[in-house]
Every structure is written in structure tokens, then in C-alpha cells.
Amino acid sequence: MEKSDTKRSLNFIEEIIEDDLRTNKWDGRVHTRFPPEPNGYLHIGHAKSICLNFGLAAKYNGPCNLRFDDTNPIKEEEEYVESIMEDVRWLGFDWEDRLYYASDYFDQLHEWAVQLIKTGKAYVCDLTAEETRQHRGTLTKPGTESPYRNRSVEDNLDLFTRMRAGEFPDGSRTLRAKIDMSAPNMNMRDPVMYRILRASHHRTGDTWCIYPMYDFTHGQSDSIERITHSVCTLEFEDHRPLYDWFLDELGVYHPRQIEFARLDLTYTVMSKRKLLELVQGGYVSGWDDPRMPTLCGLRRRGYTPESIRSFCQRIGVAKFNSTIDIALLEHCLREDLNKRARRTMAVLRPLRVVIDNYPEDLVEDLDAVNNPEDAGMGTRKVPFSRVLYIERDDFREDPPRKFFRLAPGREVRLRYAYFITCVSVVKDEQTGEVVELHCTYDPETRGGNAPDGRKVKATLHWLSAAHAVPAEVRLYDHLFNKPDPGDVPEGQDYKANLNPDSLTVLDGCYVEPAMTNAVPGDRFQFERQGYFCVDPDSTSGKLAFNRTVPLRDTWAKIAKTQKK
Ligand code: ATP
Ligand code: MG
Fold it and tell me: Do both 107 and 199 map to the same domain?
């Protein structure tokens, strides 16, 4: 049978869903969830999962739950719960009244554990963690059965009751599923269901001294919430037989689990353990350091939710792990910011320019376009006066071939203003460094065009020195200096690949006077330099900007050469 065009453009998960809708497998329902563990901040990889789960629900008119899989009281904190909710909302998704916690199901899970003991499918085991590991076998060697495996149902019920009552020390006993110690799939070798752990839980406090394992919680939580398509990452493929086993033994509602490849990005680490280490070790300033791949870091850096959603859309979903070029993420960002970011002029490394023939006291308000991509964004006034700043890099006393910007005797255009010609150079007597340029302007070229039609080869950005507002600008590069940060010599770890030049702070920058109204989070294109956003560190005395991304689009370049 020939597939229609729309069918062909579906991803493999959508194909499964549409087949299910056709056969009315779930009574026509589609119900997904995003199930983070509140043990860290969300990162760009989670965004892929969020966009996928909320996106599928939206596409098929179903709900998507937000559920915290909070089974590990030691690593979980309220701080993470709050940040996760904030980040999901910021990305543009809404769980409405469907906020759940696996810990809300602790009573039900406990009942189910008792049920499995009663049917002879679970037993209390007295092996230590180390002994349990030794009994487990390896991928090539079957495990050995625990000597406690054949306890009677009565003994197991009694011991489990006493585990719960707090009669035994932490780690001294576990409840295990009685499955198969020689199963090729290690997850099926009598996995632990409950452990004894005296730790306060962020929601249930000290109610429990036994906690269910993630594997005894996740599938049942999906079942309780009547999820139809339980979408998760590939590493859970090997856990699926175990989730199936629990649900079948319990005889409860059984969602379908579908695995997809997790997102991996070049120059980036995504493991929560590593991100936590970077934060705790002071390698970055915090979870929201603009170099972090966390959603709060990307937000602070100036990423828009739209650009992240568009990136997730473009990478699609597949069944095989692969690494995505971070240049694609940056490309999606530029594409979005190009449409929405207001243009402005900023001078990052200033060089003073005096226009000798411009009247001392005159200030002209010149018209500048806010966004050439969007006429609706209007124009603004930029003050022009006798003393200006230009970018130090835009002048060379002794210009090499192909350097078309300002040099002695040369004429260039100042954007939205006039043609100027450099007539002389002032140098620091001690260092020989150029500290000031003297130029003349042609009053006939107001607005940036010569009535006689003569051309210049460069257009520079500039600011009026008397009106410019001081600012600090932070330039970022990749946090790691290798595409694969894990690629290190023996005995070292990913931290050996941290990029020592990932942050450059420029003080003594200047921005347009209108910038005094900018507030943290506002995004701009600094003409000719890139996209920047106002950092929360800004004070009324001093603005601080993060460079979100420079203008040069390496992805577009790669895509172009590949087409050839
Ligand atoms: P942990 O090692 O702490 O379990 P995790 O990255 O799996 O870390 P979770 O909070 O369990 O974090 O993840 C929530 C959801 O996000 C899961 O469904 C998980 O599969 C998905 N997810 C996590 N990392 C990625 C990634 N890099 N790409 C796509 N999805 C991801
Ligand atoms: Mg996980």
C-alpha cells in the first residue's frame, strides 16, 4: 500500500500513535507525560523530551502531565522542583492541573509490593549491597540465587512489615522481585524493589523509612495516570521487560513504552552528575551560568524559547543515538533573533574619533532602523556629535590588503550618519598606541549617501561619546574545547577539556543612550557584532550584556558547502 505524503512526514512515534488511533487501541486517547527526577536543573536534552511529549499531546488533542519521579530522597530537592516548573513554562508548555509526584503513589506502590509478596513474586533479601552485586553475575555469566529467595510468603510479609516499621538498619535488607537470576537481561535478575533508607523526603518528610526503586515506580506511575504512550530515552529499552513484568504481574492498566534517542550536542556535557560537578566545583558561576546547557543558562545567555522549540523540531526523533552539531542550535537561534531582535549600535573596544569640522555644540538626532527584517519595528533617534567612539578593530594605521575599513586618508561611512575621512592620528607618547583619530565629515552625506554617487567600501558603527552609556559585555565561547568533551587521555576526565577562554569580560564598552531603558532579558542585535542580551547582573549604574551568539553562522556555511 502506498503511503501518503503526510504519512511519510510522520516520525516513528507519530506513526505508532496514528496506528493506535486507527485501531482505537486506547479508546482514541493520547495521553503523555514529562517525568523529570527533581535532582538537577533541566537542560537542552530535557527540552527535546518536553517538546516531544507536550508536542505529541497537543498534536493529537490529548493531555500531557508533568510528573516528578521523586523516589530518591537523598538527591532531590524542592529547589529543583521549582526550577523545573519554571523552565517548562518558559519553554511554552502548560500541564494545567496535571501536576503529579511519584511520591503521591507511595501508599499504592507499597500495597502493590505486598500484593507481589502474597503471590510469591517478591521476597525480602538480607544480602548486603556488595553481596547482591556479586550474586548478580555479568553480561556473559548468569547470576546466582540469593539464599533468602525461597522464604515463605508469611516470613516475607512479616519482614517487609518490619522493614517499613523501622526495625532494621539502613541497607540491611531489601525487597526483591522474584524473576530469573539467569535472565540474559540483567534488569530481570531479581531487581531490588524497595530499600531501607532513613532520609527525609522533600514531600513525604519522615513518613517512610523504606523507598521504592525508580524501576518499581516509573511504570506504575504511568499506569496510575493512564498514560497511553510512555515516551522515554533509549537506555530504558532494557528496563521495558521489567516494567512489563511488574504491570502484568499486578494485572493493572498497561501503557505502551516507546524509546527514542537522547540528544547529545557537540562541545557540551549533558549528564546531570557532570553539570552538578561543574556547579559545585566552581567551574561555572552556577546552574544558570550562560555557558551551561541548562535551560536557565540558555535563557540567561539570551536564547528564546522559540529557537529551542524550533531546534527540537528540526532534529526530530530517531531510534539511534547520534551527536548533533551545536552550530545547528546556534543557527536556529540566529534565525529567530534575526526576526525579532532590535538593532542597536554598541562599541565594545572604543577608539575616540574627533570630527574636526563638525560644530562644537551641535547634536543631531539621526534616524536609525530598528529591524530591517521588520518595518513594523520602526525607527529610533541616535545622537551624533563632534566626538565619537568607533571600534578599535575598525581602524588600522597601516592597513593590510583587503582591509577596507578606516585608515589614514581613507573615507568610510558611519551608519545612518555621514561619510568621514581620517586625517590624522594621535598616539600615546610612551606606548605608541593610537589613542585618538582626527577626521573630517562631508555634510552633504547626511543619512549615509553621497549626492555625487561616490562609494565607500565600509560602513562602521559608532556612538556619540558624550551620549554613550557605559556597559560591561561578556563574550562566551564553548565551555569545552573539543567537540566530544569525553575525549581525554587515560587518567583524566572531561574537565581536562574545559575551555579556559570560554568567558571574556570586556569592561569599558559603550551602548546607545536608549539602552538605559533596557531590562534583564531584553535581546538586541549589536550591529555587525552579534546578538546580545541584558544580564540580571545589570544595575542602574552599569549595564551588563551577555553575547548570546555572534553573527557568523557556521551552520549555514556548512549546509551551503554540503549542497554543492
Ligand atoms: P538521571 O541520570 O538523573 O536520571 P536524566 O537526564 O535521565 O538524568 P530525568 O530527570 O530522569 O533526567 O529526565 C527526565 C526525562 O527527560 C526523561 O524522560 C529522560 O529520558 C529525558 N531526557 C533526559 N536527558 C535527555 C536527553 N539528553 N535527550 C532527550 N531526553 C532526555
Ligand atoms: Mg532519568
Answer: yes
Which residues does a 6 A CB cutoff place in the pocket of ligand 1? 35-37, 39, 45-46, 48-49, 232-233, 262-263, 270, 272
Pocket test for ligand 1, best of 37, 231, 321 (most atoms within 8 A of CB): 37
DSSP 198-252: ---BTTTBTS-SEEE-GGGTHHHHHHHTT-SEEEEEGGGGGGHHHHHHHHHHHT-
Judge whether 394 lies within some domain. yes
Res 564: pLDDT: 54
Spacing, Cα 35 to ligand 2 middle (Å): 8
List the domain range (segments joined by +) for residue 168. 12-260
Name the residue with the closest Cα to ligand 1, atom 14: 36
The verdict on residue 201 lying in a domain is yes
Same-domain status, 352 and 430: yes
For the purposes of burial, counting CB atoms within 10 Å of the CB of 452, is it exposed (0-12), middle (13-18) or buried (19 or more)?
Answer: exposed
Q: What is the pLDDT of residue 553?
A: 82
Distance 43 CA to ligand 1 centre (A): 9
Residue 500: predicted pLDDT: 97
Q: How many domains does the chain have?
A: 3
- CA 163 to ligand 2 center in whole angstroms: 27
Residue 91's pLDDT is what?
A: 98
Q: Which active-site residues does the annotation give? A: 37, 262, 272
Q: Which of 43, 49, 74 to mutate to test the pocket of ligand 1 (most atoms within 8 A of CB)?
A: 49
Which pLDDT score is estimated for 76?
83
The pLDDT of residue 1 is 41
CA 104, 110, 113, 118 dihedral sign is negative
Q: Quick: pLDDT tens for 278-334.
A: 999 999 999 999 999 999 999 999 999 999 999 999 999 999 998 999 999 999 999
Rounded Cα gap, residues 221 and 449, in angstroms: 68
pLDDT value for 3 = 46
Q: Is residue 221 part of a domain?
A: yes
Question: Across 69-217, where does the E strand assignment appear?
Answer: 99-101, 122-125, 174-177, 192-196, 210-212
**CA angle centred on 34, ends 28 and 36, rounded to 5°:** 155
Where a domain ends, among 426, 461, 496? 461
| pLDDT < 70 stretches in the chain | 1-8, 563-564
Tell the residue nearest (CA) to atom 1 of ligand 1. 272
